[in-house]
Amino acid sequence: MRRIMTVPFSTNKVVQQCRHGWEDEAARVVEDVRKNPEAAMNGIVLRSRLQLMMYNNMYRIMFDRRFESEDDPLFVKLKALNGERSRLAQSFDNNYGDFIPILTPFLRGYLKFCKEVEEMRLQLFKDYFLEERK
């Protein structure tokens, strides 16, 4: 998500247009942390809540949609598929075909799995975001 978000969603125009939504999401994070008694006593790890905030910011811009919590079923699906895609893209175990093209025929299983993950992600976007806009 970081690479997708960097350039087109951080221009001055977009920042000015989306500032209120971003501020709202940051306020929701603060409120969620304040409501959590564990945060006051022992401290908590904010990574997953900040990830939800980032997804909400991005999906508000792209689809005018947000996720209610870290347990939202759609958020869980998206996070899992994006994590799998990211893991596959960063895997140097199977990624040699990009660097040594002659090895590409030996990576058919890996490439097939990449294609399946891509198709699952596209179907998820079609089902939950594109169809409701028609």
Summarize it:
The protein is an all-alpha fold and 134 residues long. It is 72% helix and 0% strand.
Describe the protein.
This protein has 134 residues and is mainly α. The chain has helices spanning 2-6, 12-35, 37-41, 47-63, 73-90, 96-99, 108-130. Helix 2 (12-35) crosses helix 4 and helix 5 (73-90) runs antiparallel to helix 7 (108-130). The longest helix is centred in the N-terminal third of the chain and has 24 residues, at 12-35.
Key features?
about 130 residues, mainly alpha, globular, about 70% helix, about 0% strand
Q: Number of DSSP strands?
A: 0
**Poorly predicted spans:** none
Helix fraction bin: over 70%
Structural class: mainly alpha
N- to C-terminal separation? 25 Å
Mean pLDDT, nearest integer?
83
Largest sheet: none
Number of helices: 7
String of helices and strands: HHHHHHH
Per-chain topology:
Blueprint lengths: L1 H5 L5 H24 L1 H5 L5 H17 L9 H18 L5 H4 L8 H23 L4
Helix pairs in contact: 2-4, 5-7
